[in-house]
Write a structure and sequence with these properties.
Radius of gyration: 14 Å
CATH superfamily: 5'-nuclease
Distance between the termini: 6 Å
Oligomer: single chain
Length: 148
C-alpha cells in the first residue's frame, strides 16, 4: 500500500459498529493498516461527523468513549478544510455531481494528494481528479490497495 488513503466517515463508524461483524472487521483492519503504514488521511469534517454519529445518531458509545476514539484519530485529520477546499469542493460538485458534504470531503482528499478515497457510499471505481473511489467491502479492494 503506497500513497495516502482518505477514509470516509462511514468506514470509521463501521470499525466500531457491532451490527455487521464483517464490515467491522474489514474497517478496523483497514484503520490499523493505514495507521501502521502512515498512509491514513482524514479530514476534521470526518472526525466531526463520526463523533455525531457515534454519540447522537446511532448512539454506539458514550460521549467519553467517542471522544477518546476521535482523539486517537485526530493526528491523521490533516486534510485541509479551508476556503481553498471549499473552492475545490464546488468544482467537484459541478464536475462529479456529488452531494455538497461528499464534495467537500473529496476536495479535502484531493488537496491532501490522496490516491484512493475509501468509502462505501460513493461510486466504487469512479475517478475524481487523479483519485479513485474504492469500496473496501468489494473483493477487488485488496488488489486496488497495491496500486494506491
Amino acid at each position: 500500500m503506497t500513497g495516502r488513503l482518505f477514509v470516509d466517515t462511514n468506514i470509521l463508524i463501521y470499525a466500531l459498529d457491532p451490527a455487521d461483524p464483517l464490515k467491522r472487521a474489514v474497517s478496523a483492519d483497514l484503520l490499523r493498516q493505514t495507521i501502521s503504514r502512515r498512509t491514513l488521511m482524514l479530514s476534521p469534517q470526518s472526525l466531526n461527523e463520526c463523533y455525531r454519529v457515534l454519540t447522537q445518531r446511532q448512539r454506539l458509545m458514550p460521549v467519553v468513549e467517542a471522544r477518546a476514539f476521535v482523539r486517537l484519530l485526530a493526528p491523521w485529520a490533516i486534510a485541509p478544510l479551508d476556503a481553498a477546499t471549499t473552492e475545490r469542493a464546488w468544482a467537484v460538485q459541478d464536475d462529479a455531481g456529488l452531494s455538497w458534504w461528499d464534495s467537500l470531503m473529496v476536495a479535502a482528499a484531493l488537496r491532501a494528494e490522496c490516491r484512493l478515497f475509501v468509502s462505501e457510499d460513493l461510486q466504487d471505481g469512479a475517478v475524481v481528479g487523479d483519485m479513485r473511489i474504492a469500496n473496501p467491502f468489494k473483493p477487488e479492494f485488496s488488489r486496488m490497495l497495491g496500486r494506491a
